[in-house]
C-alpha cells in the first residue's frame, strides 16, 4: 500500500507448508520484515511474541511488525510491516 509515494504497508505471504513459527524461526521472520524498513531500523518495543515496533533514527520513522497465523495455530503465514501511527 502506498501513501504519498511512501510504502504505508507491506505484506509478505509465507507458504503454510513450510511450518514457520515464531519460536524456531524468529531471525527468518525478522529478516523478511527488515526488507521493508530503513537499513538502520532497530527493535524498540516488543508488544507480544507476534507484534513489534522498530525505529529508524535516520528517517525519524517507526514501523509496526506483525506476524500472522491464518490458521489460528503457531504456523506464521504472513509478515506485515506498516508505518507506526502514534
Could you explain the architecture of this structure?
- This protein is an alpha+beta fold.
- The chain has one domain.
- Helices cover 15% and strands 40% of the residues.
- The chain has a five-stranded antiparallel sheet, with helices on one face. It has a two-stranded antiparallel ribbon with strand order 1-2.
- Strand 4 (42-46) and strand 5 (51-56) form a beta hairpin.
Fold blueprint:
Blueprint: E1 2-3, E2 6-7, E3 9-13, H1 22-34, E4 42-46, E5 51-56, E6 61-68, E7 78-83
Antiparallel strand pairs: 1-2, 3-7, 4-5, 5-6, 6-7
Please outline what is shown here:
With 86 residues, the chain is α+β, with helices and mostly antiparallel strands. The chain has one helix at residues 22-34; strands spanning 2-3, 6-7, 9-13, 42-46, 51-56, 61-68, 78-83. The model has no long low-confidence stretch (mean pLDDT 88).
The coarse overall form would be elongated
Beta-strand share of residues: 35-45%
| N- to C-terminal distance | 19 Å
- Strands of the biggest beta sheet: in what spatial order? 3-7-6-5-4
Structural class by sheet pairing and helices: alpha+beta
User: Counting H and I runs of at least 4 residues, what is the number of helices?
Assistant: 1
Rounded to an integer in angstroms, the radius of gyration calculated over CA atoms is 13 Å
Order of helices and strands: EEEHEEEE
Kindly state the percentage of residues in helix: 10-25%
- The total strand number stands at 7
**Major β-sheet, in short?**
5 strands, antiparallel
Q: Supply the number of structural domains.
A: 1
Please state the average pLDDT score: 88
| Unreliable spans | none
